[in-house]
Amino acid sequence: MASSLFSSSPVIFLLFSFTLSLLLCNAFPVQHHRHPRFPSHNYRDALTKSILFFEGQRSGKLPPNQRITWRRDSGLSDGSAMHVDLAGGYYDAGDNVKFGFPMAFTTTMLSWSVIEFGGLMKGELQNAREAIRWATDYLLKATAQPGTIYVQVGDANRDHACWERPEDMDTPRSVFKIDRNSPGSDVAAETAAALAAASLVFRRTDPTYSKLLVRRAIRVFEFADKYRGAYSNGLKKKVCPFYCSYSGYEDELLWGAAWLHKATKNPTYLNYIQVNGQILGADETDNTFGWDNKHVGARILLSKAFLVQKVQSLHDYKGHADNYICSLIPGTPFSSAQYTPGGLLFKMSDSNMQYVTSTSFLLVTYAKYLTSAHKVVNCGGAIVTPKRLRTIAKKQVDYLLGDNPLKMSYMVGYGARYPQRIHHRGSSLPSITSHPAKIQCSSGFSVMKSQSPNPNILIGAVVGGPDQHDRFPDQRSDYEQSEPATYINSPLVGSLAYLAHSFGQL
C-alpha cells in the first residue's frame, strides 16, 4: 500500500525521505575522522610486529617472557676480552656484531617514538619500554667507566666471513672502545642522546632508573664535547665501511645537547646550543636523517622548544625545519626529494627504507608540533599544512606495508606477501630446536646462497626495500635490499602508533 501512495505522490515520497534521513542523522551522527578514507592497513597489527622484531635482535641472556622463541641465549661472555660485562644489547642487522653507534641511534628513536606517541600505544607501550630498556641496560654497561665507552663487540670482518647463528658464534668477540686518547664524539654524543631520551620514557614508571640514565647522559656528553674527534679515525679498520662516521661528529653534539636540554631543562644546554649551533652545522642543508646524520632530527626537535615551549632564542630552528619539510614536498619551489615511480621516497640503494621510516616519523612529529602551535609551513608561497605532512607520511608507510607496484609488504610477517629470504643469519638457518648441533662458520653459506625461504620468521623485520624502480628480487645475498636493521624499525614504531590511533585501531 505504501508503494502505491509514493508512486502517486512524489512530493510525499520526498518529504518522507527527507524526514527519515534527518531522523537517522540524529540517531547515528556522522563520525568525523582526521583521515577521510578508511585505513588500507591494520596499523595496530603492524605496530605490534614492529616492536616484536626487537626481541629477535636481542643478544645476551634472554628473559622468560621472550616471544620470538626460535632465538636462544648468545654472546654471554661479551666483554670478557677486556674484563668487563658487555652481555646484552642488540645485533643491529643480519650479522652478529654489536655496533654501538647504530644501537644508540636506535635507542634514541625508539624513545622519541614513545615520548611523542606512547600515550596512544595502549597495550604495546610496555613492550616498547622493554625494547628500550634492553638497549639502555647495555649502554649503561658500555659507559660504566668514566672517560671510556665500549663501542663495539665483535670483529666485523671475521664475523662476515661466517654465516652462523648468534647462538653458535665462534668468531672473535673483540671489544673496541673510545677514550681520551682515541675520542669518538659522534658515538659518545649519540649515546648521551639515547640515555637522555630514554630517561624521559621512564620518568614516571621508574624514576630511579630515569635519574640514573640522565646522570649518565650528562657525564657521557661532557666526555663527547671535551675530547672531540670522529670515532672512525681511531677505529677505522674496525668500524669502516660498516658504520663509518661520514657526516662528522658536529651533528651528534647538537643532537645530544638538544636531548639533554629536553631531559634536564638545564639552561646550560640551551646556552650550548645558542653558542655552538651554527658552528655545529645547525643550518646545513643536508636533508638526510639516519644513524649517521642527525642534523634534520635536531632541527625538528629544537623547533618544538620554539613552537610549543615558546623558547624564542630557538626561533631559527623553525625555519631550518621548514626548509627540510619543503625539500620533501613534490611540486613546491624547493622540492629536491626523489621518489620511485610507485611513490616511495628514495635516498640511496643501500637500506633505503631506513630513510623512509625516519622521514615519516619526522613528518608526523612535526605535524604534531605545528598543530599545537597553530602554524603551517610556507614553501615559497605554497602553504603546507600539518594535514598534508600526515598524508605524505601515511602514503610512505602504506607503500611499506603493501601499497606498491609489487603488492608486497616490506615488513616480514605482515600482509599476505612479504620477503621470504631476508639477509639474516638467525632467521635463515635452522633453529636450535630443529637442529641442536652446532653449525660451523662456513657451512651456513650453502643455506645463504640457496633459494629456500628462511625457516624462522623474524616477525616485524623491515628490510632495506625496493630499488629506485620499485623492484625487489628477494635474494638473501642482496644485503642492500634484503637486510633488516634496528634503525629501520625504531622510527616506524612512532608512525604506526599515530596511524593506528588516528584510525581508531588502538
TrEMBL record:
Transmembrane segments: none annotated. GO terms for molecular function: cellulase activity. This is Endoglucanase. Its EC number is 3.2.1.4. The active site is at H423, D474, E483. Belongs to the glycosyl hydrolase 9 (cellulase E) family. It catalyses: Endohydrolysis of (1->4)-beta-D-glucosidic linkages in cellulose, lichenin and cereal beta-D-glucans. One of its GO terms (biological process) is cellulose catabolic process. Keywords: Carbohydrate metabolism, Cellulose degradation, Glycosidase, Hydrolase, Polysaccharide degradation, Signal. It comes from the Eukaryota. PROSITE patterns: GH9_2, GH9_3. Residues 1-27 form the signal peptide. Residues 43-495 form the Glycoside hydrolase family domain.
